[in-house]
TrEMBL record:
Main subcellular location: membrane
Protein name: Guanidinium exporter
Pfam families, per database record: Multi_Drug_Res (PF00893)
Localization per Swiss-Prot or TrEMBL: Cell membrane
Similarity field: Belongs to the drug/metabolite transporter (DMT) superfamily. Small multidrug resistance (SMR) (TC 2.A.7.1) family. Gdx/SugE subfamily.
This protein's encoding gene: sugE
TM ranges: 27-46, 58-79, 85-102
UniProt KW Transmembrane keyword: yes
A GO CC annotation given for this chain: plasma membrane
Keywords assigned by UniProt, alphabetized: Cell membrane, Membrane, Transmembrane, Transmembrane helix, Transport
Superkingdom field: Bacteria
Organism of origin: Dyadobacter chenwenxiniae
């Protein structure tokens, strides 16, 4: 259960990061509200998963999901660069997530 909540928390981190960008510096109401709700839910689920997962493992995987997910969303929806260096960086983060999971 802790792993499932951690994955959902990481996905919610992608949601709040995307809607924070869409809020244009919290100047648009609906994206700002979605940002804050997703942020609170993400932190709450991260906190729940940390009850049974080690801090370093949970936090690394949560931020990794958020970082790689935000990168992919930025490329897919916002037209951000998918240069070889950025792709390599995302793959290294993904490798770190996998290694952290395997080591736990």
């Amino acid at each position: 259960m802790a792993w499932l909540t951690l994955i959902i928390a990481g996905l919610l981190e992608v949601v709040w990061a995307y809607f924070m960008k869409q809020s244009k510096g919290f100047s648009l109401l609906v994206p700002s509200i979605i940002t804050l709700v997703a942020m609170a839910a993400s932190f709450g689920l991260l906190s729940f998963s940390m009850r049974s997962l080690p801090l370093g493992t949970a936090y690394t995987i949560w931020t990794g999901i958020g970082a790689v997910g935000a990168f992919l969303l930025g490329v897919a929806l916002l037209g951000e660069s998918a240069s070889p260096m950025r792709i390599a960086a995302a793959l290294l983060i993904l490798a770190g997530i996998v290694l952290m999971k395997i080591s736990s």
